[in-house]
Amino acid sequence: MILSTIEKPTAPFVLSLIAGVLIIAGGGTGMMWSSSGIPMYGGMMGGMMGGMMGNWQGMMGGMGFGSFLSVMTILGVISGVIILIGSVMLYSQPSQTQTWGIIVLVFSLISLFGMGGFFIGAILGFVGGILALTWNPTTPVKTA
User: Does residue 104 register a pLDDT over 50?
Assistant: First the structure.
């Protein structure tokens, strides 16, 4: 009896999984910073784009830099979740590695707008996506 095992793209899976976790962590950190009111980037008066009192959301408040940062971090978290789903699908459906590799690559690029998992997550996502696109399973030799 011949037991056939399905070869799985382990390296792309692991790299993409770590990338997704880092990107979600980076986005979550950015969300905490943007919602806490603590100046994120410093500056002369305690805020990068702020008024005289260190209000880093801009002199008009509301739709300033803080709102933009919130949207970007949410985009980063969503990208991280999609990369996590893509990495799991890479491993569970090895016949569709091309599709999931492209998804991981695209959302790793999008995650750069939301800090990209401290940028290390985006780099790992790029490498995992490229490895998924170039992955070819070795065909097992069947003996009679």
Answer: yes
